[in-house]
Design a protein that fits this description.
15 helices, 2 domains, 58% helix, alpha+beta, 4-stranded antiparallel sheet
């Protein structure tokens, strides 16, 4: 190959490399973050999982085959009916029916899957009426038995004959929004107090830091339990929900405050901050307009990593009977039925809410890990 031919071949390659370098040189910080985040495959998968969970929580009435209160006493503790998509080699979703018999000595009902009974399953079927977001009357469900009187328990039934799958879907709205609202409140407190501490310093900084150290030295679970025990039993479910969210937020703001304070201590001597001060910029505008945006990516990553802690906190309190209470449904409330080992051994499908907690918490942790790496796009 001649030198001229070699240059002709390498020319486009060199041009492409130059274009890539120029693209990175002129890209914004958010573009660099996104490009680096997309290289984190596990974080991308986790992002899809988290989005699916929150979409399901947003439209839980549509995705759930039934409502949380609908029960059928004849199917108490019925086992799961796995969904099958093909019948006789053709697309025809269905589940098998049940056979049950009662032990004449213990009077305990035992269940078996009846493969002779085929229950057709449809998508976008009409079922139990509901109000979407409590406003729009509808009766369409994503999936369900085509005949309303047929049993349809993809994840089994609980001790009252209620569909575990539907209750898990409804519970996602409570458990996931507790994390969002709690993180928003703790973020607000952390930025406010951490910003004041780092920007003003002096006596006020010492007072805020001592408060943070006291709160961080107390074990969180006993403190949660003590505060949750103060919630009156006669309160409505909505008031208890907001109180639990407030309790989780009041304990979880300390880490964010430490991060914000350390960043403000390093930023307050920067040239752009000094210029804003000399220009007469007010303190709140200086914090919100100039200082916070400089490390907003780190805050986003910290928030993503804080949401799982909120979800686990609500689940733990509700599981112990100190958080949300029936008729409110959350993953922690559903897991109250599994406090006895005998129940778990006999009806293991009641542990499905724990699987939902593990999946969403791991997805949020991996997502936060990817965001934390992408928050510094200039690091290799």
């Amino acid at each position: 190959m001649s030198v001229t031919e070699s240059l002709d071949i390498d020319g486009p390659v060199l041009d492409t490399q130059v274009q890539e370098e120029e693209k990175f040189e002129v890209a914004s910080q958010w573009q660099l973050m996104w490009w680096k985040f997309t290289k984190h495959k596990l974080a991308m998968i986790s992002l899809v999982i988290v989005v699916i969970f929150y979409v399901v929580a947003l439209f839980c009435e549509f995705f759930a085959p039934t409502t949380t209160t609908q029960y059928r006493a004849e199917y108490v503790n019925a086992p799961p009916q796995p969904l099958r998509l093909f019948l006789d080699g053709q697309w025809n979703p269905f589940v098998y029916g049940y056979l049950s018999e009662r032990d004449p000595v213990s009077f305990k009902r035992t269940w078996t899957i009846d493969e002779a009974t085929v229950i057709p399953v449809g998508f976008f079927v009409r079922g139990t009426p509901y109000r979407l977001w409590g406003l729009i009357p509808m009766d369409r469900h994503l999936v369900g038995a085509k005949e309303a009187d047929q049993p349809f328990y993809l994840m089994g039934a609980d001790k009252n004959g209620r569909d575990v799958f539907s209750r898990i879907i409804y519970s996602s709205r409570i458990s996931l929004t507790v994390g969002l609202i709690g993180v928003f409140l703790s973020l607000t407190l952390g930025i406010l107090l951490g910003g004041i501490s780092g920007l003003m310093g002096g006596v006020l900084d010492n007072i805020i830091q001592r408060i943070i150290e006291v709160l961080m030295s107390i074990p969180h679970l006993p403190l949660w339990m003590a505060l949750a025990a103060v919630v009156p039993l006669q309160w409505s479910a909505v008031r208890v929900y907001f109180m639990i969210t407030l309790i989780l937020s009041l304990i979880s703001w300390t880490g964010m405050a430490r991060v914000v304070r350390s960043r403000f201590l390093s930023l307050r001597e920067e040239d752009f901050v000094m210029a804003a001060k000399l220009d007469g910029c007010r303190r709140w505008r200086l914090i919100l307009r100039h200082m916070l945006p400089s490390f907003l990516s780190h805050i986003i990553a910290s928030v993503t990593l804080a949401i799982p802690g909120m979800i686990l906190g609500e689940t733990a309190l509700s599981f112990l009977g100190l958080g949300l209470r029936p008729p409110v449904v959350s993953w922690g409330v559903m897991l109250q039925d599994t406090q006895r080992v005998a129940v778990v051994a006999l009806y293991p499908w009641l542990m499905w809410p724990a699987a939902a907690v593990v999946l969403v918490v791991l997805a949020l942790y991996f997502l936060g890990d990817g965001l934390r790496d992408a928050a510094d796009p200039y690091q290799a």
